[in-house]
Amino acid sequence: MKYIVAIIQPDRMDEVLERLTASKVHLVTASSVMGRGRQGGIAQVYRSHKEAGTLLKKMKLEIAVNDDYVKPAIEAITGAARTGEVGDGKIFVLDLQQCIRIRTGETGHEAIG
Hints:
By secondary structure, this protein is an alpha+beta fold. The protein has a single domain (about 1-110), classed as Alpha-Beta Plaits. The protein has three helices and six strands; from the N terminus they run βαββββαβα. The chain is elongated, with a radius of gyration of 16 Å.
């Protein structure tokens, strides 16, 4: 089991979700977050509007998957989120020690679904 955390541009969210669904990855948690990467605190024109300050708007996706779905999930995210511009985002893949479905008490692979 793996836990995938992806930081992407907000305007790429719909396409990323569509591609994840097409890859049979349905369980996604999304949050609006703020962050910065290499662009740091430099105000810049980004996708036709000026971003000022040290933190930029991003979307954070959290996805728990069984091992067979790691590669399809990563390919779906990168394929939909990549523009080739600074700020496309990052993907982190972490080992997931345990998963428990509260409603049924299922654990491990069965709890992820």
